[in-house]
Amino acid sequence: MTETARGTSLRYGTRPTMKDVAARAGVGLKTVSRVVNGEPGVTPDTERRVQEAIAALGFRRNDSARILRKGRTASIGLVLEDLADPFYGPLSRAVEEVARSHGALLINGSSAEDPAREQELVLALCARRVDGLVVIPAGDDHRYLEPEIAAGVATVFVDRPAGRIDADVVLSDNFGGARDAVAHLIAHGHRRIGFIGDQPRIHTAKERLRGYRTAMAAAGLPVDGSWVSLGSTAPDRVRSAAAEMLAAREPVTALFAGNNRVTVTAVRVLRAHHRPVALVGFDDFELADLVHPAITVVAQDAAHLGRTAAGLLFRHLDGAGEPPRRLEIPTRLIPRGSGEIAPTDG
Amino acid sequence: MTETARGTSLRYGTRPTMKDVAARAGVGLKTVSRVVNGEPGVTPDTERRVQEAIAALGFRRNDSARILRKGRTASIGLVLEDLADPFYGPLSRAVEEVARSHGALLINGSSAEDPAREQELVLALCARRVDGLVVIPAGDDHRYLEPEIAAGVATVFVDRPAGRIDADVVLSDNFGGARDAVAHLIAHGHRRIGFIGDQPRIHTAKERLRGYRTAMAAAGLPVDGSWVSLGSTAPDRVRSAAAEMLAAREPVTALFAGNNRVTVTAVRVLRAHHRPVALVGFDDFELADLVHPAITVVAQDAAHLGRTAAGLLFRHLDGAGEPPRRLEIPTRLIPRGSGEIAPTDG
DNA sequence: CTGAAAGCGCTTACAG
DNA sequence: CTGAAAGCGCTTACAG
Q1: How deeply is A90 buried, as exposed, middle or buried, from its count of CB atoms within 10 A (0-12, 13-18, 19+)?
Q2: How far is residue A82's CA from residue A110's CA, in Å, rounded to a whole number?
Q3: How far apart are CA A73 and CA A320, in angstroms?
Q4: What pTM value is reported for the model?
Q5: Does the domain formed by A174-300+333-340 have CATH 3.30.750.24?
Q6: What tens digit of pLDDT does each residue of B85-111 get?
Q7: Which helix (H) or strand (E) holds A204?
Q8: Which residue on chain B is closest to A56 by alpha carbon?
Q9: Distance (Å) from CA A257 to C1' C5?
Q10: CATH number of B71-172+302-329
Q11: CA of B281 to C1' of D6 (A)
Q12: What is the CATH number of domain A2-61?
């Protein structure tokens, strides 16, 4: 714990290096490297001396230096919309587990649904030389990533496809799930069904709208323009969209909510409404079965999305030279009550 | 896009360096460094030539090399229990925002409540030379961190204190919140109140138990041993603990649930129970107001915890040589219905 | 079994 | 305004 003859120290803010360990143990640098990395070819006696020096100095290998020399950083980046959103927590954790099983760390960042911030984050991660990227894109033009991908940064998009480049993508079956949800409402007798979704520039919103329209068309039902409302999922916007559909001369008798945030607000609006209205929401959430009526949802498996994307990423890093793929994860309709309410004509 | 005379290339997996840019632009290395870092002292013409070379080669500065030379990595580590837990999402996001405002990236890891995994993660982050650490500890002995802290890794513990070392910590007022919750139930007429909490080695569980006991004692109420059950928060364990308390000869008339996972299971158990039982839960959650009866909770502000911890961390990194502090974030009782149910004697 | 030299891609300190 | 040399802390390739 004291200074060595060669000036090595535990001074605050200064860390011992392999050189310091070598000097203290009276061996060469390479021998220290061998011990630290568990390489063979060191006599037990030498090894002991090196270990003692390591312990005495509190040495810990500087992985930044190692990374610079080796080329691989053993870290991957995950860019998503918002770490605080309950949909992305399980997705993140799943990516982390896969990374961990490959000995890699995870650097996480939120784009806040801002394309400029997404790009800034992604390029910062590339500058750190992450081995790969899992991206839930906010923007719709990812040509800025082309040089990085060409330089070897494995990249997989999740939840939404990449824009204007050819890259791996793992999606939920947004179209099929939405179609099933709306078909379910139709099967329960509804003819006037409203859809409140996220901003139309978001891929999932577009796909879910397409599912809605397809189900309506398949049943031979017309879609009144006032039944569809895409935009921000902020409570105020959703609230007024729902209020409008419910107050029309011929009001909707059922609502299809385009994601979990919309569903939560829709539940609050319907609770205050004078007449029962059916509801199916895209995305499951905790306690959906305890609300009254329990909420029928189209569940997507966020952890499955994350696991699949990370798996694809590491397959690339392990050298599989496969062309970009598009994988789709199925969704599941879970009837719980709110989606089975019969239409009540106003 | 073609090879230069000096062999620089866009070959897959190989990235151009400043040296390549310098060669192509016909300038020295230091000039490229100046342009890349926006340093003054470069003529417009030279700058243009360098920029052209950068664009042509698709150069992006390697921050690993930069970090090695500069000493600071501009990244901090966050070790928590489980990224998928809704309590940690907002906390993470808050830490990320503070890091971002200081130009730092966030490396995230889940300990899965395993002390060995916590240590492994923390030391891996130290080896990467993160500038600082925000730790939600799983273990209760953090002496392994002493050399790292001495070497200058700023460290702040959140949600639970560090074990056997003196370090900054930001906590919720677990004791006060629990005491308020139980006092609330007592004020509504309850005398036999059960407490189901997390494993007793976890600091928050101990503190909340202390709050429970203090409130009971303050009201002059005895606590029967069978009314307190600490352990895993897995649904099965919680379910049987609750069932036992409700089936006793003199059953509890109210439950205090020690965290959000316990609360969720308690709600399910009570829903199936033949007689109304009051419930207050520690931790708020989405839709708590939509369940019937709406759930009375003691809310803690996870984002506030994260923001405070990260703020403290960067104050240290910015050179404030303050001694370790212990900050406490207040909790808030939110009455919604389940906590105001009167006792019904069996 | 052991170690000196070169180099990873940058920045720093200095000289022109 | 510009650049050659040294060095950050490791690993690689090689020689003894």
Answers
A1: buried
A2: 5
A3: 19
A4: 0.91
A5: no
A6: 889 999 999 999 999 999 999 999 999
A7: helix A203-218
A8: B147
A9: 67
A10: 3.40.50.2300
A11: 63
A12: 1.10.260.40
